[in-house]
Amino acid sequence: MSINRRLLLVARPSGIPGPRNFADDTVPVRAPAAGECLLETIYLSIDPAMRSWMSEGTGYQQSIPLGEPMRGGGVARVLQSRAEGFTAGDMVQARLGWQSHPTIPGRFLQKLDLAQGTVEDWIGPLGLSAVTAYFGLRDIGGMRPNDRVLVSAAAGGVGQMAVQIARIEGCRVVGIAGGLEKCAFVAGLGAAAAIDYKAQNDLSAAIGHACPEGIDLYFDNVGGPTLDAALEHLRQGARVVLCGRISQTHAAETYGIRNLGKLAASRGRMQGFLVFNYHERYDEARTWLAARHRDGSLQQRLHVLEGLEQAPVGLGMLFRGENTGKLVVRVAD
Ligand SMILES: NC(=O)c1ccc[n+]([C@@H]2O[C@H](COP(=O)([O-])OP(=O)(O)OC[C@H]3O[C@@H](n4cnc5c(N)ncnc54)[C@H](OP(=O)(O)O)[C@@H]3O)[C@@H](O)[C@H]2O)c1
């Protein structure tokens, strides 16, 4: 408790990030000043966007200076509070950074409502991956009942929530994932079909087979050739949600999309978004997600790694497809 263990960013990524980009470091915990809380990190969320935060000038957020603790969100317990509205024992979420005992101003903390869900629920089905799927499908994708929906990286953190939310809202959902085991998981979430893209010579043909009537809404987590293949099957008035492009984030050469003509021919639209812009509406999403989680229609599989030191390994796993479910690191019980 007297030591704050941290992982510092020491090298910018080239290719897939991993342990070589980080250094272990310990400092004494900092007692909270007026308005601050001393926290104990319980879970850290590991997210593909972190690679862009580690890089110089490529992301949508300021890059992390070398020598600073890695940026990252998670769930923590309040150990000491000098901030109004917080007491020792409260559970909060915040941008904690990769550290075991951060000291953070109370205005940057959000207290968890444990009546809505457990701590694991708050990093899982009520967490930001779920909220991302919720707003991406509804606000950007204009999801309607009976839409034919295609989701890529469908076994991952955001993807598995997109599959389930669309299914709950009465859509016919097809998921794309890497490998038989992940496809079985996606089918178990209620998808009408799951495509193992790693086993396909012709992904477009496989999408055509699984979506014989075409696609009204494509929720894209991967970009590149997968996006191109999906564009070939758009129905009139289709919507393409650009949630992420993980296949391109560490590519030596970016893939050029060829099928934009199909977007025009379908009178479709394609739009990107960042979940952070929905900050003021997170409660709306969480109320909906918590109700579906309580009635058993919505699950979030977590892929849990044990120990702060696993965070750099975990980050690399996302880009190699080694996670099934929302990847988190448990730092403390
Ligand atoms: N717009 C936003 O605000 C927002 C917020 C959160 C996340 N995102 C984006 O959402 C996407 C999913 O994030 P997540 O946190 O839920 O990660 P995730 O899906 O749990 O993990 C990443 C998955 O991407 C797949 N993948 C990796 N490399 C690939 C490649 N070259 N081609 C195809 N698939 C590949 C892998 O699944 P397979 O084994 O199935 O290939 C891997 O498991 C990411 O693109 C992320 O940047 C966007």
Hetero groups bound?
Answer: NADP nicotinamide-adenine-dinucleotide phosphate
- Ends distance: 14 Å
Q: What does the overall shape look like? A: globular
Beta strands, count: 15
Largest beta-sheet details: 7 strands, mixed
Task: Identify low-pLDDT runs.
Answer: none
Q: CATH topology of the largest domain, which one?
A: Quinone Oxidoreductase, Chain A, domain 1
The CATH homologous superfamily of the largest domain: Medium-chain alcohol dehydrogenases, catalytic domain
Helix content: 25-40%
CATH class of the largest domain: Alpha Beta
What structural category do the secondary elements indicate? alpha/beta
Strand content: 25-35%
Provide the gyration radius in Å: 20 Å
Q: How many structural domains does the protein architecture include?
A: 2
- Whole-number average pLDDT? 96
Task: Give the H and E element order.
Answer: EEEHEEEEHHEHEHEHEHEHEHEHE
Tell me which CATH architecture of the largest domain applies here: Alpha-Beta Complex
- List the total number of helices: 10
Topology:
Layout (H helix, E strand, L loop, with lengths): L2 E7 L12 E7 L7 E10 L4 H5 L18 E9 L9 E5 L7 E3 L4 E2 L7 H5 L4 H13 L7 E4 L5 H12 L3 E6 L2 H9 L4 E4 L6 H8 L4 E6 L3 H8 L2 E9 L17 H6 L3 E4 L9 H13 L7 E5 L4 H10 L5 E5 L3
Helix pairs in contact: 3-4, 3-9, 6-7
Description of the structure:
By secondary structure, this protein is α/β, with parallel strands linked by helices. The protein has 2 domains: 3-124 and 300-330, Medium-chain alcohol dehydrogenases, catalytic domain (Quinone Oxidoreductase, Chain A, domain 1); 128-276, NAD(P)-binding Rossmann-like Domain (Rossmann fold, 3-Layer(aba) Sandwich). The chain has 10 helices and 15 strands. Strands 3, 4, 5, 6, 7, 14 and 15 form a 7-stranded mixed sheet that branches. It has a 6-stranded parallel sheet with strand order 10-9-8-11-12-13, sandwiched between helices. It has a two-stranded antiparallel sheet with strand order 1-2. Helix 3 (128-140) crosses helix 4 (157-168), helix 3 crosses helix 9 and helix 6 packs across helix 7. The radius of gyration is 20 Å and the shape is globular. The mean pLDDT is 96. The chain binds NADP nicotinamide-adenine-dinucleotide phosphate. NADP nicotinamide-adenine-dinucleotide phosphate (NAP) binds next to helix 3, helix 4 and helix 10.
